[in-house]
Design a protein that fits this description.
By secondary structure, the protein is α/β, with parallel strands linked by helices. Helix content is 38%, strand content 15%. The protein has 2 domains: 101 residues, Enolase-like, N-terminal domain (Enolase-like, domain 1); 278 residues, TIM Barrel (Alpha-Beta Barrel). Strand 4, helix 5 and strand 5 form a beta-alpha-beta unit.
Length: 395
């Protein structure tokens, strides 16, 4: 069996473009992969053209060899832009292998460790604490036992003409500058005001798991203040409170915070992750399977994290193939914690508009089936129905 063609499609998901990769072979097998790199999707697609030049004519089952060569033989081995393309290809190659042997991918990774995977859903924080409380209602009704919101008051000044994101992604426009630097003045009252959102949510939902994502917007002193301000509300975690390169500051924060600190979505290899583990910089690891090397890279990272007793909760506000891929991974690894999902009705409808067998999400969990490989195909006409959009943004 040999690879004959590598195809790349950008598909609009309502807030970002998914980059789907199809790898054709000289048999009847085609592998399907996905990556997402918001604001750089066309760059990733261009890189995938060159990756395809390497793959054509190769044996699709020699996955470890392709993984190593695509990482090392480019000379410029690191970086998210290259890792995104390699990750989509790795997922597609494993899809071919699962189809070839007639088994779902989790069976190829040691068999299932669990019957279902718990999910958390995104929830918009809104402009006031009562908005967050109200926005949680439909998610609890849908069976979710965990939610994540964005950092209140951030994400740019409100505008009466601003478009509304109806996909369910958690971002809510606030009153602070959209590109506020972590070194600029953050009024001290801000952190006290942020705490009001979580006080309201915890008072209304005493048993709900609640997390907050900061997108790396704080420095260490303000992250410490945030951790102290939110401590009474028993959050599941505080995500990316510091810039993604600040591993030493993360270690200092994690050592003193009573709330778990989560990060890792912008780490794309075992070599990136290694110093974070060695320095005890995290409580929860969040590497994204579509950015950290696909199944091959993510399984290595998960195994290394296991040696540090670290739970793995993959970043995944992505598309349906990414969600299935993360599901196969978490079905098999022992240190699976919880999986991210936007979780809105609009997001689930979008999944069904893209795949013939979209992820089986109900009552706040993802359940895998026994279809071979990744377990789904792109529906006909999806690229015509959902042509690539143009998306920008700030931090």
């Amino acid at each position: 069996m040999r690879i004959t063609r590598v195809r790349t499609d950008l598909v609009d998901m309502g807030r970002v473009n998914a980059i789907f990769v199809r790898i054709d072979t000289d048999t009847d097998l085609t592998g399907l992969g996905e990556t997402v790199m918001r604001r750089r999707d066309r760059s990733v697609a261009a890189n995938l053209e060159q990756i395809g030049e390497y793959l054509v004519g190769k044996d699709p089952l020699a996955i470890e060899d392709h993984f190593e060569k695509l990482f090392r033989d480019t000379f410029w081995s690191g970086g998210p832009l290259h890792a995104a393309g390699r990750s989509a290809v790795d997922i597609a190659l494993w899809d071919i292998k699962g189809q070839h042997y007639g088994v779902p991918l989790y069976q190829m990774f040691g068999g299932p460790s669990r019957d279902s995977i718990p999910l958390y859903a995104h929830v918009a924080c809104g402009s006031a604490p009562e908005d967050l409380v109200a926005n949680i209602v439909p998610l609890v009704a849908a069976g979710y036992g965990a939610v994540k919101t964005g950092l209140p008051l951030f994400y740019g000044a409100k505008s009466p003409t601003a478009s509304i994101d109806r996909s369910g992604y958690f971002g809510t426009q606030g009153t602070l500058g959209a590109s506020l630097k972590e070194t600029e003045l953050l009024p001290t009252v801000t952190l006290d005001r942020i705490a009001e959102w979580f006080a309201a949510a915890r008072a209304t939902y005493p048993e709900l798991e609640i997390a907050v994502d900061c997108h790396g917007r704080l420095n260490l002193p303000n992250a410490v203040r945030l951790s102290d301000a939110l401590a009474p509300y028993r959050l599941l975690w505080i995500e990316e409170p510091l810039p993604p390169e600040a591993v030493d500051d993360y270690a200092r924060l994690t050592a003193r915070s009573s709330t778990p600190i989560a990060a890792g979505e912008r780490l794309v290899s075992v070599y990136d992750v290694k110093p974070w583990l060695e320095k005890g910089a995290l409580s929860v690891l969040q590497c994204d399977i579509v950015n950290c090397g696909g199944f091959t890279g993510a399984r290595k990272i998960a195994a290394m994290a296991e040696a540090y007793y670290l739970p793995y909760a993959p970043h995944n506000p992505n598309g349906p193939i990414a969600t299935l891929a993360a599901g196969h991974l978490m079905s098999a690894i022992p240190n699976a914690f919880i999986l991210e999902s936007v979780g809105s009705a609009a997001d689930l409808a979008m999944f069904a508009d893209i795949l013939d067998a979209p992820p089986r999400i109900a009552n706040g969990v993802l359940t895998m089936d026994d279809r071979p490989g990744i377990g789904a195909r792109l529906l006909d006409g999806v690229t015509e129905r959902r042509p690539a959009g143009v998306y920008g943004g700030t931090r």
